[in-house]
Amino acid sequence: MSRAQGANRSFFPFGNPFRMISPKGTKPSSQLLSVLHAFEATLEERLKKLIPNSKDEILSLSWMTLAMQALCESHNDIKTLMTELELPVHDWDEKWIDLYLDISVKLLDICNAFSSELSRLSQGHLFLQCVLHNLGSSTSEQYVRACSSLDGWKQHIGSGNPRIEKCGSILNDLLGSLDLPKVKKSTKGKVLMQAMYGVKVLSVFVCSVFAVAFSGTTKNMSALDVSEIYSWAPTFKRLQDLVNEEIRVRFSSERFTVLNELESVDSSVKELYPIIQVVVDPVEMQSFTKIVAELGRSTEKLSQGLDLLTKEVDNFFQVVLTGRDALLSNLRSVATDIHRNSRCNGDGQIVN
Predict the structure, then answer these.
(1) Where are the transmembrane segments (predicted)?
(2) Average pLDDT of the chain to the nearest whole number
(3) Which pick of 124, 142, 198, 289 has the fewest CB atoms within 10 Å?
(4) Contacts of 150 (CB under 8 A, 6+ apart)
Protein backbone atom coordinates (compact mmCIF):
# COMPACT_ATOMS: atom_id res chain seq x y z
CA MET A 1 0.00 0.00 0.00
CA SER A 2 2.94 2.27 0.51
CA ARG A 3 5.84 2.92 -1.79
CA ALA A 4 8.24 1.94 0.94
CA GLN A 5 7.68 -0.23 3.96
CA GLY A 6 6.26 1.83 6.78
CA ALA A 7 6.04 5.03 4.72
CA ASN A 8 3.07 7.38 5.08
CA ARG A 9 0.53 7.14 2.31
CA SER A 10 -1.18 10.05 0.69
CA PHE A 11 -4.76 10.15 1.91
CA PHE A 12 -6.07 11.83 -1.24
CA PRO A 13 -4.76 10.25 -4.43
CA PHE A 14 -7.03 12.50 -6.48
CA GLY A 15 -6.76 15.74 -4.56
CA ASN A 16 -8.63 16.87 -1.47
CA PRO A 17 -12.32 15.98 -1.87
CA PHE A 18 -13.38 17.48 1.44
CA ARG A 19 -16.30 19.82 1.52
CA MET A 20 -18.22 20.49 4.68
CA ILE A 21 -21.92 20.51 3.97
CA SER A 22 -21.80 22.93 1.07
CA PRO A 23 -22.65 26.57 1.76
CA LYS A 24 -23.53 27.03 -1.92
CA GLY A 25 -26.47 24.65 -1.94
CA THR A 26 -29.43 24.22 0.31
CA LYS A 27 -28.21 24.19 3.88
CA PRO A 28 -29.28 21.42 6.23
CA SER A 29 -31.85 22.24 8.84
CA SER A 30 -30.87 22.58 12.47
CA GLN A 31 -32.51 19.20 13.08
CA LEU A 32 -30.33 17.51 10.46
CA LEU A 33 -27.21 19.17 11.86
CA SER A 34 -28.18 18.01 15.31
CA VAL A 35 -28.45 14.41 14.09
CA LEU A 36 -25.06 14.66 12.37
CA HIS A 37 -23.35 16.23 15.36
CA ALA A 38 -24.72 13.54 17.67
CA PHE A 39 -23.43 10.86 15.31
CA GLU A 40 -19.96 12.39 15.14
CA ALA A 41 -19.83 12.94 18.91
CA THR A 42 -20.52 9.24 19.44
CA LEU A 43 -17.83 8.36 16.91
CA GLU A 44 -15.33 10.54 18.75
CA GLU A 45 -16.15 8.86 22.07
CA ARG A 46 -15.42 5.48 20.51
CA LEU A 47 -12.08 6.78 19.24
CA LYS A 48 -11.23 8.02 22.72
CA LYS A 49 -11.93 4.59 24.20
CA LEU A 50 -9.38 3.10 21.80
CA ILE A 51 -6.62 5.38 23.12
CA PRO A 52 -4.90 3.10 25.66
CA ASN A 53 -3.60 4.17 29.04
CA SER A 54 -0.33 2.43 28.25
CA LYS A 55 1.46 1.67 24.99
CA ASP A 56 1.76 -1.92 26.19
CA GLU A 57 -1.99 -2.29 25.61
CA ILE A 58 -1.63 -1.56 21.90
CA LEU A 59 -1.82 -4.63 19.68
CA SER A 60 -3.06 -6.80 22.49
CA LEU A 61 -5.93 -9.09 21.54
CA SER A 62 -8.11 -7.27 24.08
CA TRP A 63 -7.42 -3.90 22.39
CA MET A 64 -8.10 -5.40 18.97
CA THR A 65 -11.38 -6.77 20.30
CA LEU A 66 -12.38 -3.28 21.48
CA ALA A 67 -11.46 -1.90 18.06
CA MET A 68 -13.64 -4.46 16.31
CA GLN A 69 -16.50 -3.69 18.70
CA ALA A 70 -16.16 -0.01 17.80
CA LEU A 71 -16.47 -0.93 14.12
CA CYS A 72 -19.60 -3.00 14.74
CA GLU A 73 -21.24 -0.21 16.73
CA SER A 74 -20.33 2.49 14.20
CA HIS A 75 -21.67 0.51 11.24
CA ASN A 76 -24.86 -0.16 13.18
CA ASP A 77 -25.09 3.57 13.85
CA ILE A 78 -25.04 4.22 10.09
CA LYS A 79 -28.11 2.02 9.69
CA THR A 80 -29.81 3.88 12.54
CA LEU A 81 -28.88 7.21 10.95
CA MET A 82 -30.52 6.18 7.68
CA THR A 83 -33.74 5.58 9.60
CA GLU A 84 -33.51 8.91 11.42
CA LEU A 85 -32.90 10.77 8.17
CA GLU A 86 -35.98 9.15 6.61
CA LEU A 87 -34.06 8.92 3.38
CA PRO A 88 -35.70 6.13 1.37
CA VAL A 89 -33.55 4.06 -0.95
CA HIS A 90 -35.31 5.37 -4.05
CA ASP A 91 -33.93 8.82 -3.17
CA TRP A 92 -30.35 7.53 -3.05
CA ASP A 93 -28.05 8.60 -5.82
CA GLU A 94 -26.84 5.61 -7.84
CA LYS A 95 -23.22 6.41 -7.00
CA TRP A 96 -24.00 6.26 -3.26
CA ILE A 97 -25.45 2.78 -3.71
CA ASP A 98 -22.46 1.64 -5.77
CA LEU A 99 -20.10 3.03 -3.13
CA TYR A 100 -21.92 1.34 -0.25
CA LEU A 101 -22.07 -2.03 -2.00
CA ASP A 102 -18.45 -1.84 -3.12
CA ILE A 103 -17.18 -1.01 0.37
CA SER A 104 -19.32 -3.68 1.99
CA VAL A 105 -18.04 -6.48 -0.23
CA LYS A 106 -14.44 -5.45 0.46
CA LEU A 107 -15.10 -5.42 4.20
CA LEU A 108 -16.60 -8.90 3.94
CA ASP A 109 -13.50 -10.08 2.09
CA ILE A 110 -11.16 -8.65 4.69
CA CYS A 111 -13.25 -10.14 7.52
CA ASN A 112 -12.86 -13.55 5.89
CA ALA A 113 -9.10 -13.03 5.74
CA PHE A 114 -8.95 -12.05 9.42
CA SER A 115 -11.12 -15.02 10.42
CA SER A 116 -8.82 -17.30 8.48
CA GLU A 117 -5.76 -16.01 10.35
CA LEU A 118 -7.44 -16.19 13.74
CA SER A 119 -8.40 -19.78 13.01
CA ARG A 120 -4.81 -20.56 12.01
CA LEU A 121 -3.46 -19.04 15.23
CA SER A 122 -6.01 -20.96 17.27
CA GLN A 123 -4.90 -24.21 15.66
CA GLY A 124 -1.45 -23.55 17.08
CA HIS A 125 -2.99 -23.93 20.51
CA LEU A 126 -3.17 -27.70 19.94
CA PHE A 127 0.63 -27.90 19.76
CA LEU A 128 0.96 -26.00 23.01
CA GLN A 129 -1.56 -28.26 24.73
CA CYS A 130 0.52 -31.27 23.68
CA VAL A 131 3.63 -29.59 25.08
CA LEU A 132 2.00 -28.94 28.44
CA HIS A 133 0.56 -32.45 28.58
CA ASN A 134 3.92 -34.09 27.88
CA LEU A 135 5.70 -31.90 30.40
CA GLY A 136 3.41 -33.30 33.05
CA SER A 137 5.75 -36.28 33.09
CA SER A 138 9.49 -36.25 33.82
CA THR A 139 10.48 -39.04 31.43
CA SER A 140 12.96 -38.37 28.64
CA GLU A 141 10.49 -39.80 26.12
CA GLN A 142 7.89 -37.20 27.08
CA TYR A 143 10.48 -34.44 26.76
CA VAL A 144 11.26 -35.60 23.23
CA ARG A 145 7.57 -35.40 22.39
CA ALA A 146 7.33 -31.96 23.97
CA CYS A 147 10.29 -30.79 21.85
CA SER A 148 8.58 -32.11 18.74
CA SER A 149 5.38 -30.24 19.61
CA LEU A 150 7.33 -27.01 20.20
CA ASP A 151 8.97 -27.43 16.79
CA GLY A 152 5.54 -27.95 15.29
CA TRP A 153 4.19 -24.83 17.00
CA LYS A 154 7.06 -22.63 15.80
CA GLN A 155 6.72 -23.93 12.26
CA HIS A 156 2.95 -23.48 12.26
CA ILE A 157 3.00 -19.95 13.69
CA GLY A 158 5.86 -18.91 11.41
CA SER A 159 4.09 -20.05 8.24
CA GLY A 160 2.42 -17.41 6.11
CA ASN A 161 -1.24 -16.97 5.30
CA PRO A 162 -1.94 -16.16 1.61
CA ARG A 163 -5.30 -14.62 2.52
CA ILE A 164 -3.64 -12.10 4.81
CA GLU A 165 -1.09 -11.30 2.14
CA LYS A 166 -3.96 -10.25 -0.14
CA CYS A 167 -5.25 -7.72 2.40
CA GLY A 168 -2.95 -5.06 0.98
CA SER A 169 -4.86 -4.79 -2.30
CA ILE A 170 -8.21 -4.77 -0.47
CA LEU A 171 -6.99 -1.96 1.81
CA ASN A 172 -5.79 -0.01 -1.23
CA ASP A 173 -9.30 -0.24 -2.67
CA LEU A 174 -10.85 0.85 0.63
CA LEU A 175 -8.45 3.77 0.77
CA GLY A 176 -9.60 4.87 -2.67
CA SER A 177 -13.24 4.69 -1.54
CA LEU A 178 -12.63 7.40 1.07
CA ASP A 179 -13.11 10.02 -1.64
CA LEU A 180 -16.49 11.59 -0.84
CA PRO A 181 -19.07 11.48 -3.64
CA LYS A 182 -20.46 14.89 -4.52
CA VAL A 183 -23.94 15.62 -3.26
CA LYS A 184 -25.58 18.60 -4.95
CA LYS A 185 -29.27 18.67 -4.09
CA SER A 186 -30.00 16.40 -1.15
CA THR A 187 -29.17 17.88 2.27
CA LYS A 188 -29.98 14.53 3.85
CA GLY A 189 -27.61 12.93 1.39
CA LYS A 190 -24.85 15.30 2.46
CA VAL A 191 -25.39 14.39 6.09
CA LEU A 192 -25.33 10.68 5.24
CA MET A 193 -22.14 10.95 3.18
CA GLN A 194 -20.34 12.91 5.90
CA ALA A 195 -21.33 10.37 8.54
CA MET A 196 -20.31 7.48 6.30
CA TYR A 197 -16.94 9.13 5.78
CA GLY A 198 -16.15 8.97 9.50
CA VAL A 199 -17.06 5.29 9.64
CA LYS A 200 -14.98 4.58 6.54
CA VAL A 201 -11.95 6.24 8.14
CA LEU A 202 -12.37 4.12 11.27
CA SER A 203 -12.80 1.00 9.13
CA VAL A 204 -9.63 1.61 7.10
CA PHE A 205 -7.61 2.41 10.22
CA VAL A 206 -8.71 -0.65 12.21
CA CYS A 207 -8.40 -3.02 9.26
CA SER A 208 -4.93 -1.66 8.50
CA VAL A 209 -3.78 -2.25 12.08
CA PHE A 210 -5.13 -5.80 11.96
CA ALA A 211 -3.39 -6.45 8.66
CA VAL A 212 -0.08 -5.21 10.10
CA ALA A 213 -0.46 -7.34 13.23
CA PHE A 214 -1.32 -10.49 11.28
CA SER A 215 1.10 -10.07 8.38
CA GLY A 216 4.20 -9.20 10.39
CA THR A 217 5.05 -6.27 8.12
CA THR A 218 4.38 -2.54 8.16
CA LYS A 219 3.63 -2.31 4.45
CA ASN A 220 -0.10 -2.18 5.21
CA MET A 221 0.22 0.54 7.86
CA SER A 222 -1.90 3.57 7.01
CA ALA A 223 -1.33 7.24 7.77
CA LEU A 224 -4.67 8.92 7.14
CA ASP A 225 -4.60 12.70 6.97
CA VAL A 226 -8.08 13.70 8.10
CA SER A 227 -9.08 17.32 7.69
CA GLU A 228 -9.52 19.36 10.88
CA ILE A 229 -12.99 20.38 9.71
CA TYR A 230 -14.25 17.17 11.28
CA SER A 231 -14.88 17.45 15.00
CA TRP A 232 -13.45 13.98 15.67
CA ALA A 233 -10.28 14.54 13.60
CA PRO A 234 -7.93 15.59 16.49
CA THR A 235 -8.90 12.51 18.53
CA PHE A 236 -8.40 10.26 15.53
CA LYS A 237 -4.99 11.79 14.82
CA ARG A 238 -3.90 11.23 18.42
CA LEU A 239 -5.01 7.61 18.29
CA GLN A 240 -3.42 6.93 14.91
CA ASP A 241 -0.11 8.57 15.84
CA LEU A 242 0.10 6.60 19.09
CA VAL A 243 -0.68 3.25 17.47
CA ASN A 244 1.54 3.76 14.42
CA GLU A 245 4.50 4.88 16.53
CA GLU A 246 4.22 1.80 18.75
CA ILE A 247 4.00 -0.42 15.67
CA ARG A 248 7.20 1.10 14.29
CA VAL A 249 8.97 0.62 17.64
CA ARG A 250 7.98 -3.02 17.83
CA PHE A 251 9.08 -3.81 14.31
CA SER A 252 12.39 -2.01 14.81
CA SER A 253 13.11 -4.29 17.80
CA GLU A 254 12.72 -7.34 15.54
CA ARG A 255 10.26 -9.06 17.84
CA PHE A 256 8.90 -12.48 16.91
CA THR A 257 5.46 -10.91 16.63
CA VAL A 258 3.83 -7.58 17.45
CA LEU A 259 0.89 -9.30 19.14
CA ASN A 260 1.31 -9.13 22.91
CA GLU A 261 -0.21 -12.49 23.82
CA LEU A 262 1.62 -14.35 21.07
CA GLU A 263 4.91 -12.73 22.07
CA SER A 264 4.36 -13.82 25.67
CA VAL A 265 3.93 -17.44 24.60
CA ASP A 266 7.02 -17.28 22.39
CA SER A 267 9.07 -15.87 25.26
CA SER A 268 8.20 -18.90 27.43
CA VAL A 269 8.88 -21.26 24.53
CA LYS A 270 12.37 -19.80 24.04
CA GLU A 271 13.17 -20.33 27.71
CA LEU A 272 11.75 -23.82 27.83
CA TYR A 273 13.10 -25.30 24.61
CA PRO A 274 16.82 -25.59 25.52
CA ILE A 275 15.96 -27.04 28.93
CA ILE A 276 13.85 -29.94 27.69
CA GLN A 277 16.33 -30.87 24.96
CA VAL A 278 18.28 -32.58 27.73
CA VAL A 279 17.21 -34.36 30.91
CA VAL A 280 16.33 -31.69 33.44
CA ASP A 281 18.81 -31.34 36.28
CA PRO A 282 17.10 -31.41 39.71
CA VAL A 283 18.80 -28.08 40.52
CA GLU A 284 16.99 -26.53 37.56
CA MET A 285 13.62 -28.02 38.40
CA GLN A 286 12.42 -24.95 40.27
CA SER A 287 12.99 -22.61 37.33
CA PHE A 288 11.71 -25.31 34.97
CA THR A 289 8.44 -25.60 36.88
CA LYS A 290 8.08 -21.82 36.89
CA ILE A 291 8.60 -21.59 33.12
CA VAL A 292 6.10 -24.36 32.43
CA ALA A 293 3.54 -22.63 34.65
CA GLU A 294 4.10 -19.35 32.81
CA LEU A 295 3.70 -21.10 29.47
CA GLY A 296 0.41 -22.52 30.70
CA ARG A 297 -0.87 -19.09 31.74
CA SER A 298 0.21 -17.34 28.54
CA THR A 299 -1.22 -20.17 26.42
CA GLU A 300 -4.59 -19.87 28.13
CA LYS A 301 -4.59 -16.09 27.78
CA LEU A 302 -3.76 -16.38 24.07
CA SER A 303 -6.53 -18.92 23.52
CA GLN A 304 -9.15 -16.82 25.33
CA GLY A 305 -8.08 -13.66 23.50
CA LEU A 306 -8.29 -15.36 20.10
CA ASP A 307 -11.76 -16.71 20.92
CA LEU A 308 -13.09 -13.28 21.91
CA LEU A 309 -11.57 -11.53 18.90
CA THR A 310 -12.88 -14.21 16.54
CA LYS A 311 -16.37 -13.63 17.93
CA GLU A 312 -16.14 -9.88 17.30
CA VAL A 313 -14.81 -10.34 13.76
CA ASP A 314 -17.73 -12.69 13.07
CA ASN A 315 -20.11 -10.10 14.55
CA PHE A 316 -18.70 -7.41 12.27
CA PHE A 317 -19.09 -9.70 9.27
CA GLN A 318 -22.77 -10.16 10.15
CA VAL A 319 -23.31 -6.42 10.67
CA VAL A 320 -21.89 -5.64 7.24
CA LEU A 321 -23.72 -8.54 5.59
CA THR A 322 -27.13 -7.66 7.05
CA GLY A 323 -26.71 -4.01 6.07
CA ARG A 324 -25.83 -5.02 2.54
CA ASP A 325 -28.73 -7.48 2.32
CA ALA A 326 -31.17 -4.87 3.62
CA LEU A 327 -30.10 -2.38 0.94
CA LEU A 328 -30.35 -4.98 -1.82
CA SER A 329 -33.79 -6.01 -0.57
CA ASN A 330 -34.97 -2.41 -0.64
CA LEU A 331 -33.58 -1.97 -4.13
CA ARG A 332 -35.49 -5.04 -5.33
CA SER A 333 -38.65 -3.68 -3.70
CA VAL A 334 -38.22 -0.33 -5.48
CA ALA A 335 -37.60 -2.11 -8.79
CA THR A 336 -40.79 -4.14 -8.30
CA ASP A 337 -42.82 -0.97 -7.64
CA ILE A 338 -41.43 0.67 -10.76
CA HIS A 339 -42.27 -2.41 -12.79
CA ARG A 340 -45.85 -2.38 -11.46
CA ASN A 341 -46.28 1.28 -12.28
CA SER A 342 -44.96 0.76 -15.79
CA ARG A 343 -47.77 -1.76 -16.39
CA CYS A 344 -50.47 0.77 -15.57
CA ASN A 345 -52.27 2.73 -18.29
CA GLY A 346 -53.05 6.40 -18.05
CA ASP A 347 -56.23 5.73 -16.00
CA GLY A 348 -54.29 3.75 -13.46
CA GLN A 349 -55.63 0.40 -14.74
CA ILE A 350 -53.31 -2.58 -14.87
CA VAL A 351 -52.47 -3.60 -18.44
CA ASN A 352 -52.85 -7.37 -18.81
Answers:
(1) 191-214
(2) 82
(3) 289
(4) 127, 131, 269, 272, 273, 276
